Amino acid sequence: NENQRCGPKYKGLSCARSKYGSCCSQYGWCGSTKDHCNAGCQSAFGTCTG
Q1: Fold held by 8-45
Q2: pLDDT of 1-50, one tens digit each?
Q3: Sign of torsion, CA 32 35 36 41?
Q4: Where are the domains of the chain?
Q5: In the chain, at which end, N or C, are there fewer CB atoms within 10 A of the end residue's CB?
């Protein structure tokens, strides 16, 4: 996924192996910060830690 977007609104793209980070935020962005990985994180589309 090179688009930094993820989730059902974006054809179900996952953040796995994304260069931006492996967590999919509640707003459909790939990243690696706590904002991406904690509350609202979409576990179906990447890694979540919160």
Answers
A1: Wheat Germ Agglutinin (Isolectin 2); domain 1 (3.30.60)
A2: 678 999 999 999 999 999 999 999 999 999 999 999 999 999 999 999 98
A3: positive
A4: 8-45
A5: C
